[in-house]
Amino acid sequence: MKKTFLVLFLAFTALFTSCSDDDNSEKKEYRVAVPLTSDLRVFKEEAVDVMEPEPIQQSGKIYAYQDFVFVNDLYRGIHIIDNSNPSTPQNIAFIKLEGNNDISIKNDRLYADSYGDLVIFDISDIDNIPAAKRIENAIYQEFWCTVGFDVDWPEADYFDYSEFDAGNEAIVGWEVKRERLSQAEFESRFGYNDLALQDGIAFSEPARAESAASDNSTGQGGSLARFKIVGNYLYAVEWSSISIFDISDLDNPVTLEDVYTNGAIETIYNQGEILFLGGPQGMYIYDISNPEKPVFVSDFQHGTACDPVVVDGDWAFVTLRGDTFCGNTESGLYVVDVSNLTNPSLFKFYPLAGPYGLGFKEELLFVCDGADGLKVFDKSDVGNIKLINHFKDIVTYDVIPLSQSLLMIGDGVLYQYAYSEGNIELLSEFSLN
């Protein structure tokens, strides 16, 4: 967002700057990237397929359902792992689903996002998944949702979308043209002063941006999830709103009215009829006693950072990661008192290296501290949380504490741990590459 504000500021400043001398100034050569496009409907149809297993390219989120683990391959699709024997998991299929980040499952219906659409798969026969159903623009409709994620971004000074129809076209490549322009010509054509160019690109990228244990009919995701099924409703959070679907008829979800949130949102977690939404500036609490219309209760504000949250009773555990992308807040674990939902307050802060997802099983708290590995804490005394185990030399992303074991996704590796006398022990390590 900082880049957006800078670009807008400089653009408006340019309107009040005399350019009488610019016409005579020396021209510069600019690299202008123009999108190569395809019909969006055809593009989306070709972006879905059920295939044989293939290596993962970039680990995303994980989701557990019955004897299966689903691993998101960032923006590419979903790897299906047969986990009936956690000691020897088997990669059995890959669902090609471009533009995908999240899934949620109920009664053999897999709901997933794809370029802002909601896609529904029937996985009752995991070896014979039929064609998917797609509800267009059901979740969000951001510009970047129509860019193929296997398309490389070229080096350019400006990306010219003036002829691009986001509603009907998809970007499948780029043509980079070199043009000589004066400062005045550049500002007149593109609306930017070239001082606004950062890293050689004169546009601001949009932010790209489960939870409590569930019964056997509904799966379970990690703390970084943006999808959450509660009862007969699917909630999907995006940057500034909650998309709500009535899934009473599993094959025909009803899209309900979006609820706009009181801040930017990245993750969703529920405890009963209360949603806890994690965002880069705070945690937001919503009441879903009327499941079709979440109502804002309160928020807990913190410095700018990436922010997943899990909740156990009166305590919310929030990891904050402050880095060049997420913000400048000190990385660590925030313990927030939510006994009074209308007035959550910080109880204790514990520093960490660069945490991502987290989860808990009874008194054990599991934190994925990025490149600093998996950390296991005893949280029985929230005022004095103690580190009891540290699995080093692994990259960690998110965890799902199941009833019998812990799932964790790292850099192309699925780890599983067995609970053992108040601690955990490595059960298996399965490479998806």
UniProtKB/TrEMBL annotation:
Its keywords, alphabetically, are: Signal
- Signal peptide limits: 1-19
Q: Which InterPro entries match?
A: LVIVD (IPR013211)
Quote the protein name from its UniProt record.
LVIVD repeat-containing protein
| Organism of derivation | Euzebyella saccharophila
Phylogenetic classification of the source organism: Bacteria, Pseudomonadati, Bacteroidota, Flavobacteriia, Flavobacteriales
